[in-house]
Design brief:
Length: 507
């Protein structure tokens, strides 16, 4: 039996390699582009508060919409609360109506939310609109990575898995760029366009072949896979591998959740999403312009935000090109180290000692609340110091977008078992955004009471935890099929699938 298995495995690999050489990716790329337009809208809506808050907190703002610290904290953080609700909704929708329809349905709260904000005449309209765009963001965050992982083959899954993060960054950069020339109400109106365009394109895209097979629709699954891979692709090999994975699973029970094949990937995914948010990326993005204003950066805050958005786009493109070459763990190590060094720098330069009003003492370090030395001899040094917060923030965003940004989404969709993937991905997104809500809401009050030093110090500690978690708990999934990854958690030792494993064990 062992000799027979050894002869069969190379033959299967040769057939699979031959089949993969006939793959045409053009339609797959079109399907992925259609889906990730939802992430473009997500990135746009996430940072909507960054250029809008300074305008709504100014004395010139409409009195009905003017915000103080507490109202601004709610406007910035309620998006994350909506995203958590959207993640909970996706837990049900992913398995009830499928990944594709879940993504399409996210356009409803997104469009209504932007309409409310664009025509807001009272504060509640801004808050409800921001909450609804958050709901849409949570739905897309839970559904799009799973959809992409299930329609992609392993040769390009790493690169395509980073596309949600890339397009989210494009959305962020588009918001920053438009905010330089467009009033905030028109920013809300422009936000409706990507979601509506996404719905139109997704109507013509196929559903996930894995979901179709799990519903017993073999012919539809075969047509969908052939559409995605090309007319000359031998679909039977991939379909049989997917069917084998489905056949070995049944509806998960509470007792099964106590087995490593289920609880290990779910815990890894949940903890990764928790740590991703605890690095502070969401409050930094949401309050970027107010943070730069407090940091006394030399350039105007709105230009600083646009520069950081461009750096974020570049770093995500770098990560996409390296995802299937360097591997997931190497990028996560690099990401953790860059974020640690940048947050440590921000912690040190933002640490100040309170002093009475009046002229600054000669040995005063760079402060968030008062100007640098007035001494002409130190003016050049002060000007250079004014760029340190901007450079450190750029390094932080660069590090995050190279690893803990895109890879967390990708690994979530790769390691979660198929039978629990829809519910578990919704759980991950819910945990992630509840964490983001609490952190984003607390951030404004922490900064007002203690300055930027305390939150930056917390983020520094979290980056060290991210480094250790990657070293101990996260497996390398580069070049592995979803079925091989499931087998790794099932055996706890190997990615290699043995079709006659149970027979061999009994023998």
């Amino acid at each position: 039996m062992s000799a027979h298995m050894n002869e069969e495995t190379p033959l299967l690999k040769r057939r699979l390699t031959s089949s993969e050489s006939q793959i045409k990716n053009s339609k797959l790329f079109l399907a992925v582009f259609s889906a990730v337009l939802g992430n473009f809208s997500f990135g746009y809506s996430l940072v909507f508060s960054s250029p809008v808050l300074p305008q709504l907190k100014s004395p010139d703002a409409d009195p009905r919409l003017r915000m103080d610290t507490e109202k601004a904290a709610w406007f910035g953080s309620i998006y994350s609360l909506g995203a958590a609700a959207g993640g909970l909704g996706a837990m049900l929708l992913n398995d009830m109506v499928g990944r594709k329809l879940s993504i399409m349905m996210s356009a409803v709260p997104s469009t209504i939310g932007y309409m409310l904000m664009g025509g807001a005449v009272d504060l509640w309209m801004l808050l409800v609109g921001r909450f609804l765009t958050g709901v849409a963001g949570g739905m897309t965050a839970a559904s799009i990575p799973v959809y992409i992982s299930e329609i992609s083959h392993k040769g390009v899954r790493g690169a395509l898995g980073s596309c949600p993060q890339v397009t989210a960054v494009f959305g962020t950069l588009a918001l920053y760029a438009l905010s330089l020339v467009v009033p905030w109400r028109w920013l809300a109106i422009a936000g409706e366009v990507p979601a509506l365009f996404m719905v139109v394109l997704l109507v013509f895209m196929p559903s996930s072949p894995r979901r179709l097979l799990s519903l017993g629709r073999e012919q539809q699954a075969e047509r969908a896979l052939r559409w995605l891979r090309g007319s000359h692709y031998d679909t039977q090999i991939e379909l049989s591998a997917i069917q084998h994975s489905i056949n070995t699973q049944s509806r998960v029970t509470w007792s099964q959740l106590a087995t490593p094949v289920y609880y290990r990937p779910i815990i890894i995914s949940v903890v990764m999403r928790f740590l991703q948010q605890m690095t502070g990326v969401t409050p930094i993005l949401v309050y970027m312009e107010p943070i730069f204003a407090k940091s006394k950066v030399s350039l105007a805050p709105k230009y600083d935000a646009a520069i950081v958005g461009a750096v974020r786009l570049f770093s995500v493109a770098v990560a996409a090109s390296l995802m299937d070459k360097a591997g997931r763990k190497a990028l996560l190590y690099t990401s953790s180290m860059l974020m640690f060094l940048s947050t440590l720098t921000l912690t040190m330069i933002s640490h100040t000692t309170p002093c009475p009003p009046g002229p600054s003492p000669p040995n005063l370090t760079m402060s968030l609340n008062y100007s640098p030395h007035n001494d002409i001899g130190n003016s050049l040094e002060a000007s250079s110091a004014g760029l340190i917060p901007l450079i450190s923030t750029m390094v932080f965003i660069f590090g995050y977008a190279m690893g803990w940004g895109p890879i967390t989404w990708l690994l979530m969709s790769e390691v979660l078992p198929l039978v629990a993937r829809g519910v578990a991905s919704g759980l991950c997104v819910t945990v992630s955004w509840l964490t983001a809500f609490m952190l984003t809401h607390a951030f404004t009050h922490l900064v007002d009471n203690y300055g930027l030093y305390v939150p930056y110090l917390c983020f520094t500690v979290v980056c060290v935890v991210c480094l250790l978690f990657n070293a101990v708990c996260i497996p390398e999934t580069r070049g592995r099929s979803l079925e091989e990854i499931e087998n790794y958690f099932r055996t706890g030792r190997t990615f290699t699938i043995r079709r006659s494993q149970s027979t061999a064990q009994s023998g």
